[in-house]
Amino acid sequence: MEDHMQTKSIEPYLNCSFECSCGRTHKSLFAHYIFEPGAIKKLPDLLAQLGYIRPYLISDTHTHEIAGHQAEEVLKGANIRFTSHILKSPNKGDLAADEHALGSIAMGNDKDADIIISVGTGTINDLGRYFSYITGRPFLLIATAPSMDGLVSGVAPLIFNNMKVTFPAQEPLALICDPEIMAAAPLKMLAAGAADILGKYNCLLDWKLSNIINDEYYCDTIADIMRTAVDQTMESTNGLASHDSRAVSVLTEALVLSGIAMDFSGNSRPASGAEHHQSHYWEMQFLFDRIPAVLHGTKVGIGTVLMLELYNKLAEMEKPDFSKIRENISCRLSMEVWEKEIHRCYRDGAEGIIQLEKKTKKNDSKGLLERLSVMEKRWDEIKALAKTAPKASEIYDVLEKMGAAKVPADVGICREYVYDSIRFGKELRDRYTILQLMWDIGELDEAAEKLVEKYCDET
């Protein structure tokens, strides 16, 4: 009964299609959610039910030991032919989802395999579902930890040419989770999964903000799915530190709901905002400086605290003097100086950022003037939205209770990285967020200085 109750908020979205009040048709190919002890033993029957006979298994050193070896033994016992490719996990840090790892998977590929199976949750999941997408084969996931929110999403954030880029990917037909395996995951992975979901407090605000200012598509149904995931996660945080199985089950379902929300929207907008821009920027800097990787959700949690500080500031702000803002537009960074800053911050990835700006013109004065005009008319609505944001201190406290990283120094993110990520992290995506709004009204640089002063050590 408990397992059924645990999946009740997911069941309506399994293999579904429905006309939404937003005017779009939302579809999901995700059809099977197996969450029970010994779930991996059901793999042969599931493959038979789906009509596939030759899987290509992808894992890394850690996930193969946790669940990959068991999956192989189960397939052997059922006389199912398979190929297994194990990526070598680094001695320090986490495996990167980059072109090198993808190339390794491609070189180990079994061209006769008719389905791709990832054994793992974060990087292995992203790599597997993207490889599935580009090779035109279906995808199945065996999760090993509730550490990230893309369990069943149709996009994959990968590192390409030193840039974090979100690619279209194949959503899984099925997700297999053994609660005993999930609950046994290291606390840092449980906390990372919860922190990734807590970031939705900010990204939902960013999404609605863009809807107000840019008339960007926004769906209340999808936002409500995401809020359910956040509410469930808040319920689970107290039990995660003790690896409570019920808390881990609740968190896992929240992560699944997040992926469904992304799938319905066709992009990561319901689950990724300015807090993810911070995480992606820091991840790139770690790669450039050969610093061992930090779990994505861990960085998202820290970024969420910083970005909610901006919303809390906005909630208390008096209506800006828009006439003065317009008068001072000419005093902003010239394109030449901006490009120098982008080369300093993004290094080998700078040209990609510059080309994105030339295409989208996020910082162009014409677009800025148009947005300022909307802001001036709808300032009360914008401020009311900001007042719905939780206090940054509340999220900080939740992270602390879970034993999660709370400030940049907890995971080796230096002051310079933080200052630059707040000022220039918005350039990573053509996506309107609180960072762009603060830049629009000329408050971003000062906000960056204050946040660094508050949350970063002097060293």
From TrEMBL:
GO molecular function, one term: oxidoreductase activity, acting on CH-OH group of donors
Pfam families to which the protein is assigned, alphabetical: Fe-ADH_2
Entry keyword annotation includes Oxidoreductase: yes
Gene3D superfamilies, alphabetized: 3.40.50.1970, Dehydroquinate synthase-like - alpha domain
Keyword list, A-Z: Cytoplasm, Lipid biosynthesis, Lipid metabolism, Metal-binding, NAD, NADP, Oxidoreductase, Phospholipid biosynthesis, Phospholipid metabolism
Acyltransferase is among the record's keywords: no
InterPro entries associated with the record: G1PDH, Glycerol_DH
CDD domains reported in the protein's UniProt record: G1PDH
GO biological process: phospholipid biosynthetic process
GO cellular component: cytosol
Protein name: Sn-glycerol-1-phosphate dehydrogenase
